[in-house]
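Consider one such protein record:
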Amino acid sequence: MSRPFRLSVLDQSIAVSGRPQDQSIRNTVSLARHCEALGYERFWVSEHHNHPTIVGTAPEIVMAAIAATTERIRIGSAGIMLPHYSPFKVAEVFRVLEALAPGRIDMGLGRAPGSDGRTAFALNPAANERPEHFPADVRDLIAWVNNQPLVERHPFGSVKAFPQSPTSPEVWILGSSDYGAQVAALFGLPYCYAWFFSDGAGGERAIDLYKRSYRPSARHPEPHSALCVWALAAETTEKAQYHFTSRALSRINRDKNILGPLLPPDEAGKAPLADFERAKMEQFRKDSFVGTGPEVAARITELKERVGVDEMAVVTWTHDEQVRRDSYTELAKAYGFAP
């Protein structure tokens, strides 16, 4: 199969039963090297807090580690939850990252807390006030990270973000609602919709809104959109569905606010479930991008063309780390860009 578009990876450093959580962080760094060798375009890492399942809490640190051990692949945050932080500090962090990997840094920004309200308050006692300032914070951050002047009479107009360099990070807005699409369009930024987070609900509307309201910017004269989907590929459909059991149970438990490490497929398959939960799990199996490499690639391509986006990204959870690595290999082979 010819390579029809750029395909990227989102990794969330998932906790799994029977494995120390710190290993999940090291596995993320190792996976980035693996995906670079396979020919993936970008490798993004997420930010969550106080989450027993998703233990990636500091994407900027993981990005630095990945930058030190890769050469080509773009490295990004998916995303920095901006309401937790000072835009100036975020600009400084990403100027340093740009110095470590010139021309390879994506600064993905989100408005959601990536946590519960109490945790958001622990991160930043003023966090409840920040979401309403999100557009202004994005505006200032774009200026600082690109060494451009802030708006006239800005109280911090004389403050610069160092180090300076000839290149600057590519700024993305990430989201799972119309709001992020509107912010991305307002500032002329690329936009990625978290299709996996909402099972696609509202995704086509958000992408359409983004395109219709897009205001061209110097760096991005045309809108540039992407979707991130959950997928799992294996040598056989049966094997893929077997390992998907861990993720399916985790999703059902999430809906009940039961969070914890990913269980092995055998254990997950024996979990006591109500009839309606078993029906929901079977529906997950039908709706999810799970199967052989060609089967999953075909579904990803169909969705890309149907929604009309420029790029796709994939996130994969498995209990067995080698199965996860193999999934990205199978998908790269299906698209014809694995070496």
User: Anything to note?
Assistant: Residues 13 and 24 are 5 Å apart (CA to CA). The longest helix spans residues 237-255. Residues 6-335 form a domain with the TIM Barrel fold (CATH 3.20.20.30). The chain has 13 helices and nine strands.
